[in-house]
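Now for a sample.
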Amino acid sequence: MSAAAFPLDPSLWHATAAPAPDCPPLDKDVEVDVAIVGGGYAGLSTALHLAERGVGCIVLEAREPGWGGSGRNGGQVIPGLKYDPDEMVEKFGPEAGKALTAFAASTADTVFELIAKHQMNVPHVRNGWIQGAHIPSMIETAKKRSAQWAALGANTEFFDKAKTDEHLGTDVYLAGWIDRRGGAVQPLSYARELCRAAQRAGAVVHGQTPVAGLSREGSKWKVKTAQGRTVTAGKVVLCTNGYTKDYYPKLARTVIAPNSYQVATEPLSDNVRKSILPYGQVSSDTRQLLLYFRLDHEGRLLMGGRGPFREPNDKSDWAHLERVIARMFPAAKEAPIHYRWCGRVAVTRDFLPHLHEPEPGLIVNIGCMGRGVGLESTMGKALAAYAATGDRKTLPFPVTPVRTIPFHGLNRAYVAAVVTYYRMRDAGLA
């Protein structure tokens, strides 16, 4: 099944989401202050915050808002980035590192504040996120992460094995830590409600409007759609992440976009439900190819992780996740799997978000690293501020040149091989 044809229909989120907003295809040429390409969290948040500033903007989405990774992820809202606070300071220096850490710390707050402010119809919980340590060396990592964030005022705690077992409902981890800022949302509902909020604020959103090309004419940008319609804009913001094409030369080769696979059971019985994540947290672990799991708002158990780099062929592509459920949560091993789906994650070479402006007025945001719910919602605020003011100080990350990943095609093959290797190494669990 090709990426273009892969529908939302197999997804739990599609089956339980809030109704989709009306986003008709663009049917005429228009001129606007800012054109946004991509109707995921970043693009919709950018549109919402631009509209609230009174800036005219339009979103062009190839499918429907939330069709890509924003409607296919695990719905976990995790503050922070892949780097710990001390690593950010070491990498970027004291001033910039602390500023970037503060930005990363705010990402979960953004999501829950937007849900409350706009009274979004989004099932959500905020009872924290737990990261389980899967090998002895990760026990110290968990202690370090918890301590570093606690020193900055976050409500975190290190868990020994007994407490980790109690909170997760499984005995496969050696220890862990909890970040009580984290939580979960119904991700497609959140994307659709973010779209609705942007529309109410004055943004225009068009679905089923693929972008065919970009060109600069004088001080303006021309965004040509596949249907032949054109948007003329003073600025363009690209927010396509794991579904990026070469709207700008070589842009798609700046990231690797592996598939993240998920399964969901039928709603569990009350007794089984109470034995898994009994305190309502969500979790992902410290594996190279991490596992992530949670209960949804109707008591289904979700399990996610890496699978084949290609698009799925049949149900066997999710079989490793079904084995994980049986090993980690024996009480749920007989629960039928009702949903199987996947979505692409944009991973940069340094595992950090990248911001580019290769030509004046063309702003590129790319790289979500699996934390897109909070990260991209918050990035949208910053992108809107920059598009409105032109002040780069409003951006949380430095603007860098577009640099491709060397031997990009080989890297895709490498990622596929690494996925296979770690799945074999973790065969005791999966």
Q: What stands out?
A: Residues 1-8 have pLDDT under 50 and may be disordered.
